[in-house]
C-alpha cells in the first residue's frame, strides 16, 4: 500500500466531510471522489481533522527515572493524546545541561518514532541557578535545542536570568521560565488561601509566581529577548502577561489542562495526586485562565505531563512529589473547559494545541495549516465520544492522574506523524517500536 486515505473528515470541524490523501509524508490531495484505490484507509465518518498537537512541556523521565516513564512510553502516551511533537523537559538525571543528554533524548525519540521528541536544555548547570549551561553547544547539537528551561526550578537570580535572556537572544532560542520565587514558597505544598489554611497545608502564594512573571517581562523588554511563561496559574499572571504584551514585550504563556479544570477544593482528601507545581488555585483563577486562553492572552495549552512513582505520590501530602499525568487527557479537558462552554471552536483548538506552540518554538513542520503540500502531521478527533479515565489503561508507566474515574467528552481516534499512523483506536502503533 502506498499512502493513507482519511475518508470523510471535517477539516477544523468546518464545512462538509472530505477525503484527505497522504503520501510521502505530505498531504497530497483534499476533496471528494479522489479515486485512490491503493492506500491504508481510515474511515473518519465526520470526525474532526486537526493538525497534530505540539506540547511545549512534557516530562519523560529518561534518563534517570525510567521506572516512572521512558521516552518510549511517554511517546506512546503522546501519540494517543494526539501529539506529533513534544518538548522533553531538562529535569532528568543526569540533567539535560549538556549536548550528551540532549542528543540522546532526540535520537531515542527518533528511534521510537511515535512523536518528535525535542529536547529542552537546562538554562543553568545542574538546574542550580548559578552558572549558565552551554546553551550554544546544545543548540548546535543533533537535538538542535531550541528551548531552554530549568523547569521544576525557577531561574531565580535576576542577573543570571538577564544573562540567559541575552544569550538566548543571540542564539535565537527561547527561555521558558518556571515562575516561582523560591523565597516565598519554602515548604509550601498548596495554594495559599482559605482551603490550605483550613487543612493546615503550607501556602504557595500567587505573588511567588506573579513577581517572577513581572520581573521577567521587564528583563525580556530590556534584553530585547523572548520569554515564555510555563504553567500560568493565577488571574494576576494573566493581567501581567496582558500588560506586557500591550507594551510590545515578546512574552508568551502556556496553561495546563489541570489548571483550566481543577481548583484547590480538590485538596480536601489530602490525596497527593492533586499536588502539583504551581498548585491548583481557586475557581476564579481557573475562570480567568480559560478566558485568557480564549482571548489569546495565554497562547497555548501545555500538559506539564509529570509522571511519578506510586511511592512518591501515595504518601503524606507534604512529602509527595508534585506533578500530574497529562498527555492522554489534554484534548478532552480542553473540549470540556473551552469547546463545550463556547470559548473556543475547533479552529481555536488547533491554534492553542498545535499552531501557537509550534510558532513559539519556531517549528516549521508541525502546527501547519491542513492544506495540500503541507507535512502530514494530523490528529483525528471524535467529538461525540465520551470516555472514563482509568489510570491503568493509560500508556504511561505511572498512574498519577487526578482525573481517575472522571468522564470526559471527545477522544483522539488517530494520530499521523509525517504520513505514518502512530496511534489508532486507542493503541500506539509504530513501525520502529510497537508499544
Ligand atoms: C514537575 C515535575 O515533576 O518534573 N512537577 C510539577 O509539579 N509540575 C516539574 C515542574 O513542571 O515544575
Ligand atoms: Zn514547572
From TrEMBL:
List of residues binding Zn(2+) 2: 151, 178, 231
Gene Ontology biological process terms, A to Z: 'de novo' UMP biosynthetic process; purine nucleobase catabolic process
The keyword Transmembrane is assigned to this record: no
InterPro entries (UniProt xref): DHOase, DHOase/Allantoinase_Hydrolase, DHOase_cat, Dihydroorotase_CS, Metal-dep_hydrolase_composite, Metal_Hydrolase
Cofactor dependency: Zn(2+)
Recorded GO CC terms: cytoplasm
Active site: 304
Amino acids binding substrate: 59-61, 91, 277, 308, 322-323
Coiled-coil intervals: none
EC number(s) stated in the UniProt entry for this protein: 3.5.2.3
Any single Pfam family the record assigns to this protein: DHOase
GO molecular function, one term: dihydroorotase activity
Cofactor note: Binds 2 Zn(2+) ions per subunit.
PROSITE patterns in UniProt: DIHYDROOROTASE_2 (PS00483)
Keyword terms, alphabetized: Hydrolase, Metal-binding, Pyrimidine biosynthesis, Zinc
Residue numbers binding Zn(2+) 1: 57, 59, 151, 304
Leading EC class: hydrolase
Domain (Dihydroorotase catalytic) ranges: 46-234
Family (UniProt): Belongs to the metallo-dependent hydrolases superfamily. DHOase family. Class I DHOase subfamily.
Role played: Catalyzes the reversible cyclization of carbamoyl aspartate to dihydroorotate.
Name this protein carries in UniProt: Dihydroorotase
Amino acid at each position: 500500500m502506498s499512502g493513507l486515505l482519511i475518508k470523510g473528515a471535517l477539516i477544523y470541524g468546518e464545512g462538509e466531510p472530505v477525503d484527505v490523501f497522504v503520501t510521502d509524508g505530505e498531504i497530497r490531495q483534499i476533496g471528494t471522489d479522489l479515486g485512490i484505490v491503493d492506500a491504508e484507509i481510515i474511515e473518519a465518518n465526520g470526525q474532526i481533522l486537526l493538525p497534530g498537537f505540539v506540547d511545549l512541556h512534557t516530562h519523560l523521565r529518561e534518563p534517570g527515572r525510567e521506572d516512572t516513564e521512558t521516552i518510549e512510553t511517554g511517546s506512546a502516551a503522546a501519540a494517543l493524546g494526539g501529539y506529533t511533537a513534544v518538548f522533553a523537559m531538562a529535569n532528568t538525571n543526569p540533567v539535560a545541561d549538556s549536548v550528551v543528554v540532549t542528543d540522546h533524548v532526540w535520537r531515542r525519540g527518533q528511534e521510537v518514532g511515535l512523536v518528535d521528541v525535542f529536547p529542552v536544555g537546562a538554562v543553568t548547570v545542574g538546574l542550580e541557578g548559578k552558572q549558565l549551561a552551554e546553551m550554544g553547544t546544545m543548540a548546535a547539537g543533533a537535538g538542535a535545542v531550541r528551548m531552554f528551561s530549568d523547569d521544576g526550578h525557577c531561574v531565580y537570580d535576576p542577573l543570571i536570568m538577564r544573562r540567559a535572556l541575552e544569550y538566548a537572544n543571540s542564539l535565537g532560542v527561547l527561555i521558558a521560565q518556571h515562575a516561582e520565587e523560591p523565597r516565598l514558597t519554602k515548604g509550601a505544598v498548596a495554594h495559599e488561601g482559605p482551603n490550605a489554611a483550613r487543612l493546615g497545608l503550607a501556602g504557595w502564594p500567587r505573588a511567588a509566581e506573579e513577581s517572577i512573571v513581572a520581573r521577567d517581562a521587564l528583563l525580556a523588554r530590556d534584553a530585547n529577548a523572548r520569554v515564555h511563561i510555563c504553567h500560568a496559574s493565577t488571574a494576576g499572571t494573566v493581567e501581567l502577561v496582558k500588560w506586557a504584551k500591550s507594551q510590545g514585550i515578546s512574552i508568551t504563556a502556556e496553561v495546563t489542562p489541570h489548571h483550566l479544570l481543577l481548583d484547590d477544593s480538590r485538596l480536601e482528601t489530602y490525596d497527593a495526586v492533586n499536588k502539583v507545581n504551581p498548585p491548583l488555585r481557586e475557581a476564579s483563577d481557573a475562570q480567568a485562565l480559560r478566558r485568557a486562553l480564549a482571548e489569546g492572552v495565554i497562547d497555548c495549552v501545555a500538559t506539564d505531563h509529570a509522571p511519578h512513582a506510586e511511592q512518591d505520590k501515595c504518601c503524606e501530602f507534604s512529602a509527595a512529589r508534585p506533578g500530574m499525568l497529562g498527555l492522554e487527557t489534554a484534548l478532552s479537558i480542553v473540549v470540556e473547559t473551552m469547546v463545550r462552554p463556547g470559548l473556543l471552536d475547533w479552529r481555536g483548538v488547533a491554534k492553542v494545541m498545535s499552531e501557537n506552540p509550534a510558532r513559539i518554538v519556531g517549528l516549521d513542520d508541525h502546527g501547519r495549516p491542513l492544506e495540500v503540500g503541507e507535512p502530514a502531521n494530523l490528529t483525528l478527533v471524535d467529538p461525540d465520544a465520551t470516555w472514563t479515565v482509568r489510570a491503568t489503561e493509560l500508556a504511561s508507566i505511572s498512574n498519577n492522574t487526578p482525573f481517575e474515574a472522571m468522564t470526559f467528552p471527545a477522544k483522539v481516534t488517530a494520530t499521523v506523524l509525517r504520513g505514518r499512523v502512530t496511534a489508532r483506536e486507542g493503541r500506539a502503533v509504530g513501525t520502529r517500536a510497537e508499544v
